[in-house]
Write a structure and sequence with these properties.
Oligomer: single chain
Order of helices and strands: HHHHHHHEEEEE
Strand content: 5-15%
Number of strands: 5
Radius of gyration: 40 Å
Largest sheet: 5 strands, antiparallel
Structural class: alpha+beta
């Protein structure tokens, strides 16, 4: 016997921007960018501390070795050349101290000031921009959510009616093969099958009408969501543009040398900063968190009857765990059953035999037919003879 199939993984398309509530990632960009500003300021404040430490180290180095040089017997141009190293270090010390001051007092204050002007906080918590976009997205999505709930209700009703019809069809099929069943009972079962078919047709018609309503509203829903999303994109565009300019300004403070090897490092950094593209960043967000995300639009889902479940492989039962019935109980088969394995019993509906072991936790009993043929059978396929 094979093991039951594993549960299918959750459809990743349910995370699409178009699904109910998934716009929150776009709304949260405001809060995220506010926190990024603090991170940028802290980052370059840390760099300012490095610059200040380096400036102090240059001064300490110059002071130490200038005194040593002054005490030695070098003279003339050779002494002037040696002392030139110390003068250069002192000039570099002043330059790096100036960089440290600029990173904190100029760029740090600039970002703080812009952040205060840009992000208007609400009295209790959050930001006005986030609240406004949250409200706008909710209003645009509210009718859509109602229609989806109505569609899901219609789908479940339709599938339930299909399941009920299938159950009646199975009963009718079993009844036709049961020679002990009278015509009146068979007719009642057939009438039940006809009613189930009519109910299924009605449920399908309702399902199709609701689906048609949802499909007809999709274009309007997309238009309204797109309008709010583009407003959010425009706000994000301004933030990206500002931070790009802030990075370029910080770069101008740091790029202080004409040394070819160092110029190459800063040139690469400059190229990277100039490569910041509002359009590419916004396009990436659109594809990964916006309307460009893949989704599964509502469509008619046909009901598929469940397949026959595979029963778990029976494990050997120790004698002390068996519930053996002395003498057995006589039972009558309700349905035909053909054993699928060597240890299973086969019988026809109406046939009588002995049940010699009670039902186990997997739903199987053990029976013995005339002639001594023994085996397992589904407990629900036979009942005791009254």
């Amino acid at each position: 016997m094979t093991m039951p199939p594993k549960e299918p993984q959750e459809d990743v398309k349910k995370l699409s921007f178009w699904m109910p509530g998934n716009y929150v990632r776009t709304v949260h960009r405001t809060q995220d960018f506010f926190q990024v500003c603090d991170n940028v300021v802290a980052c370059f404040k840390d760099r300012a501390r490095v610059e200040k430490q380096y400036s102090q180290q240059l001064r300490d180095w110059s002071s130490k070795w200038r005194s040593v040089a002054d005490s030695r017997s070098l003279y003339g141009s050779l002494m002037t050349a040696w002392q030139a190293f110390f003068s250069s270090a002192e000039r570099l010390s002043l330059l790096h101290s100036s960089i440290s001051h600029s990173l904190v007092s100029e760029e740090g204050e600039r970002i703080h000031s812009w952040r205060t002007d840009t992000f208007k906080q609400r009295m209790l918590c959050g930001f006005h921009e986030s609240h406004d976009f949250e409200t706008a997205f909710t209003c645009a999505q509210k009718p859509w959510v109602k229609k989806l709930k109505k569609l899901e209700k219609a789908r479940l009703a339709y599938h339930k009616s299909c399941e009920k019809e299938q159950s009646v069809l199975d009963r009718e099929c079993q009844a036709k093969h049961n020679s002990n069943l009278n015509e009146y009972t068979l007719a009642k079962i057939q009438q039940a099958r006809e009613r189930a078919t009519q109910d299924r047709d009605k449920a399908r018609n309702r399902y199709e009408k609701v689906l048609e309503d949802v499909t007809g509203y999709t274009a309007r829903y997309m238009e309204e969501m797109e309008a709010v999303f583009e407003q959010s994109q425009e706000q994000e565009r301004k933030r990206i543009s500002f931070l790009k300019q802030a990075f370029l300004s910080i770069h101008r403070h740091l790029d202080i040398t004409n040394n070819d090897s160092v110029k190459e490092v800063y040139a690469e950094l400059h190229h990277t900063l100039l490569s910041i593209s509002e359009e590419e960043d916004l396009h990436w967000w659109r594809v990964h968190h916006g309307p460009g995300m893949p989704t599964t639009w509502p469509a008619l889902q046909e009901w598929v009857p469940p397949g026959r479940k595979q029963k778990p492989r029976k494990k050997p039962v120790k004698d002390k765990d068996k519930v053996v019935m002395i003498g057995g109980v006589r039972v009558r088969a309700l349905y035909n059953y053909v054993g699928e394995e060597a240890d299973e019993l086969s019988f026809n509906a109406g046939e009588e035999f002995l049940k010699v072991e009670e039902e186990d936790e997997q739903g199987w009993c053990r029976g013995v037919k005339e002639g001594g043929v023994a085996g397992f059978y589904p407990a629900k396929y036979a009942l005791p003879v009254q």
